[in-house]
Amino acid sequence: MLGHLDGATRLYLILGDPIAQVRSPAGLTRLMAARGHNGVVVPGHVAAEDFDALVAAAKRLRNLDGIVVTVPHKFAAARHCDRLSGRARLLGAVNVLRREADGRWAGEMLDGAGFVAALRAAGAEPAGRRALLVGAGGAGSAIGAELLAAGVAALAIHDTDPARRDALIARLRAAWPAVPVAAGGDDPAGFTLLANATPAGMRPGDPPPLRLERIAPGTAVGDVVTAPAATPLVAAARARGCPAATGTAMFEAQAALLADFLMGAARP
To answer: What positions does the domain Shikimate dehydrogenase substrate binding N-terminal occupy (predicted)?
Structure first.
């Protein structure tokens, strides 16, 4: 896969903390190669306190054309963009940056689009469902906005940080005033769509993001965690016969969108 590397190879970074769980480097590099683009995606493990300095320095690399951003840097990354898409501006967060022809940096947020596409591929249409979202960080913000755009009947948001949760609720209410958006808890009873946008389930022994025993049959479930392939939330949903989208499915659905943006096919 890397036999094409040479001095003309365009460089793309993916930055996060942790980073070992991400699948983007190989998947995006393969996509670029399949499209005839000489590029490589390289992972970088950077802590929050070092993120701004790292990005400022990385932008000086003249063969660096883009940066993919994962937890916990999506809000911080927005301030490194000269231009933001409409949804990135709404959320104040991005998960991908691209160097434009004029040298400026454009930012986009594609987590929500990938999540909804993965749900639909699993046989779960969001429209008309009552949704409970766990996590109001960068990915959660994007997923909440995309679920509202997809036509959910109501959205409740649960987060361990009440201030962050309430800020997202206010932002989404302003953009979708006709749809009920409120604070929620960890009890999924009464909801027909559950979305985990936190790292819960990534490590053995993690407490589940929701009360798994309260998931009703037929509830649509999506989880952003890519490793393990089936988190305890996904496993519990499948055991009840629920359609469930994994973090890997979300990445696969989002990968083509990321490649389009990084290679310049999609403009903010």
So the answer is: 14-97
Q: How far is CA 137 from CA 89, 104, 230, in A?
A: 15, 26, 22
154-158 and 181-183: which strand pairing? parallel
**Average pLDDT, integer, range 1-21:** 88
Name the 3-class secondary structure at 35.
Answer: coil
Beta partners for residue 130, in sequence order: 154
Angstrom distance (rounded) from CA 158 to CA 182? 9
Mean pLDDT of 168-187: 98
Nearest-angstrom CA–CA distance, 15 and 140 = 18
Which of left, alpha, beta for 36 (phi over 0: left; psi -120 to 50: alpha)?
left
Is residue 238 very low, low, confident or very high in pLDDT (cuts 50, 70, 90)? very high
* Segment 124-152, tens digit of pLDDT: 999 999 999 999 999 999 999 999 999 99
CA gap 23, 42 in Å, rounded: 11
Active-site residue set: 74
pTM of the full structure: 0.89
Residue type, 45: H
Rounded Cα distance between 89 and 83, Å, is 9
